[in-house]
Structure formats: C-alpha cells, structure tokens
Amino acid sequence: MQKKIALLGSTGSIGLQTLQVVDMFPEQFKVVSIASGGNRIDLIEKQIIKYNPQVISVTNEECAKKLGVKYKSRQRKVLSGLEGVVEAAVMEDVDLVVAAISGAAGLVPTLAAIKSGKDIALANKETLVAAGALVMEEVNKNGVNLLPVDSEHSAVFQCIEPDQAEAIASIVLTASGGPFRGYSLDALRNVTRQEALKHPNWSMGSKISIDSATLMNKGLEVIEAHWLFGIDYSRIEVVVHPQSIIHSMVRYADGSILAHLGYPDMRIPIQFALTYPKRWGNALKQLDFTQVGTLSFEKPDLQKFPSLELAYGAGKVGGIMPTILNAANEAAVEMFLNDQIKFLQIPQLVETALAKSQQITNPSLEDILEADKAIRLEVKNVYYKGLIN
C-alpha cells in the first residue's frame, strides 16, 4: 500500500530532494498534496503534471488564480494563503506530512497536521524553535511520530538506543563551520551575499545557507534538539567538523559514543523519515572510507560567530525568547540577502532584539505569532534608526 504524502514547501531545496526520493520509490509513495510559498509557477506546474496531487496550495494568490484556471477540477483543489497550506496538510488521505516550508511560516500548518493526527517528517527547525513547548504537547497528546529530517537530528535519532534515554550523557551536534571557517574577524566584515551562499559541503536553500555561515543554524538546531530529545542545554555539545561525514553523535554514561556517518546528502535522512522504521536500499553515493582521509574537529569560535551563543542563551531562558531569536534572525537574514546590511550585523540585530524584548514565560500560540510579527518590524526599525554599527 502506498504511503500518501503532503509536501509543504515543494519548490524549496528539501521539497525538491523529497520528490527525488519519491521518484526512487514510485510504487511506495504517492504525493497527494503540495504547498509552495514561492512564485515559481513553472516549477509548480511541472509538479502538478508529474505527481497529480489532489490539493495544490500556493501562498501567492495571483499564482493560485493562474494555476486554478488550468488545473482546478472536481478531483483537484487549487488554494492560496495560510488556509490553503493548512488544508494541504490535514487532508484525510495524508499519512505523512513533510514539513519543509522555510522559517516560522511552517508553524501553523505543522501544528494543524499534528492535531489532525498526521505523522510529521520535520525539516522546519523553526517550528520547534519558536513553539517547542506547544508542539511537543500536541505531539504527545495526539500520539503522532515526529521524525527529524535535519541530518544532525536524524543522526541523533538513529543513535539513541531503545530504552536507553537515561544512559545518555550528552548529544554532540556537528557543524561544518560554513564557508567562513578560518576567516579573521576583519575578513568577515566585508564578506558578500554570494560568498555566504557557497556552503562547502551541502546543497541548501538561501536562508539556511546564511544561517550556516553565521552558525545560527547550529544554534537553532541546539534548541530543536532540546525539544526533540528532552535533553537539557547543558548536555548539548557543538563541535565543528569540516568534512561533514559524522552527522552527529550520542555520548553515553559508560564512555561509549555512537556516531552516525554518511556522505553529505540530504536525501539520506529524508528517505529514512519517509521509510521509518525500515531502511531501504538506494542508488545514492555510498561513503568510501579509503577516500575520506582525515576527520577533524574544532571548538566553534564564539567571538567570530556569536549567533550560536545567542541561541544557547535564548533557549536556556525559554519562554518567548526563542521566538524572538528566530524572528529577529529571519528578518536580519532577509535584509542581508537583499544587500541591506553586512554579514556581522546579522547577530548584532538579533542580540539587540533579544535585549529589547519583554519575556513571556508560557506563551500561547497567539503570543508567539504576535511576537514573531512584531519583532520582524522591530529589527528593521532598529537598523534604520542606526542603533547598530
């Protein structure tokens, strides 16, 4: 029997790679709904023709109207806006929702899917960063599987032995160091958008590529790991591993360390989330240890890349602060991608937003959504008022 998939973020990097995995197993998987936050109407059309989804949701209303004229029928809906994404996620036929919409925009549809009893393949770390307590409460209440797609969290998930949670001393998240590993602070002052987007090992979307360059991506992963695995922040380590062969590790109380190794290809953790709990063979590139050479490890440089420390701090404080961290970072990254600010101003804007914000200890979904919206505006105001260097 085919597993029926809702793919949220079908035109993004993870969405496209998910479809490549689906193509490897056409008898086992069926894409029944897609949602896209972009306006790549030509690509969406190709996906409609190839996968014949029953529900298509496009954030852009104008794009949705154009697609509706060509593809809407009794058997197919073409929708727009947040309501459309939610409907794509909660379709009755859906067995698994691949949550791959970038940023906090993925929170509401992912929560809706969990409440409707859908298993989630989570590629959107911002959902747990912004609303970890709410999300995990609903996961536990509805008894759904929350399967991590991030290579690091998938690695940890696979290295945690059954019934051995109490024996975990810590988890170790590995970071490539991004394109600017080894740069001096002076050199970082003038790096360009094009340089920041050139990740040395992974093929990723623009937002996550910038986050990787600042190490904020690893900071968000620390917060995500806290919620996914119920691990205190004091027991989450980060090490820089430039080769990206070890995707993460679990350190046990007896001194043993279990590591997950593999070629840096996002289709591997995507496939595991889709096939869980089974592992299927594929034709992807296999790791050849004779070609790997040396595996090296370093401590992250928090002076040059303060975003990681900001994330640890926001996570430990909890409440609304991780929401503030995420929203401020998304706004700052957008400004950097638009060539409005310099690279080192990204963490400066995030730090300023955290310092200026009022704590809410147990935020509701409404609190989270309001804070997310307000902080994005505040970050731009801080910059335009000249409050950062």
Question: What is the fold's blueprint, element by element?
Answer:
Blueprint: E1 3-8, H1 13-24, E2 29-36, H2 41-51, E3 55-58, H3 61-71, E4 77-80, H4 81-90, E5 96-99, H5 107-115, E6 119-122, H6 125-142, E7 146-148, H7 151-159, E8 168-175, H8 185-188, H9 193-196, H10 206-214, H11 216-229, E9 236-240, E10 246-252, E11 257-261, H12 267-275, H13 289-292, H14 307-317, H15 321-337, H16 345-356, H17 365-384
Parallel strand pairs: 1-2, 1-5, 2-3, 3-4, 5-6, 6-7, 8-9
Antiparallel strand pairs: 8-10, 10-11
Q: How many β-strand stretches? A: 11
The CATH topology name of the domain at 3-148 reads: Rossmann fold
- Radius of gyration, in Å, reads 20 Å
The CATH C-level name of the domain at 3-148 is Alpha Beta
CATH architecture of the domain at 3-148: 3-Layer(aba) Sandwich
N-to-C terminal Cα separation, in Å? 58 Å
The total of helices stands at 17
CATH superfamily of the domain at 3-148: NAD(P)-binding Rossmann-like Domain
Low-confidence parts = none
What summary fits the major beta sheet?
7 strands, parallel
Helix content: 40-55%
Provide the succession of SSEs.
EHEHEHEHEHEHEHEHHHHEEEHHHHHH
What fraction strand?
Answer: 5-15%
- The order of strands across the largest sheet is 4-3-2-1-5-6-7
Instruction: Determine the structural class based on helices, strands and strand pairing.
Output: alpha/beta
What is the global morphology? globular
> How confident is the prediction overall: mean pLDDT?
94
